[in-house]
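Hi all, long-time lurker, first post. I run a small reading group and we've been trying to get comfortable going from sequence to structure in the token notation. Rather than ask abstract questions, I figured I'd post a concrete chain and ask someone more experienced to write out its structure so we can walk through it together at our next meeting. Sequence below, copied exactly:
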Amino acid sequence: ASPAAISLTTVAEGIFLDANSRFCELLGWSREALIGCSALDIALWPTLGERAAWRERLLASGRQQDFTARWLRRDGQPIDVSISADIERHAPDPLIALAQDQGLRGL
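-- Answer (accepted) --
Happy to help. Here is the structure in token form:
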């Protein structure tokens, strides 16, 4: 199992297509609950503006490296993460994202 929290989503709407166990554990959601939902459905981002800013940067370059953001876990607890993401241009619409809990860096 990978120590990285990995998800596969659509670029346009942020709908989860897949997620590994670490991603689910990090956010407090089961894989089954995530698949088919969007980041907006699960209130992942504290505000729409924060998600929009990240998405604009991602679309401009097709890639983000170590973008620091605050997400919300299922229980509403904020978590600071570092996100690296890449738009897979050869696929219909998927975005591969890796997230790391900032609180665990350096441990």
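A couple of things your group might point at:
The mean pLDDT is 87.
DSSP finds three helices and five strands in the chain.
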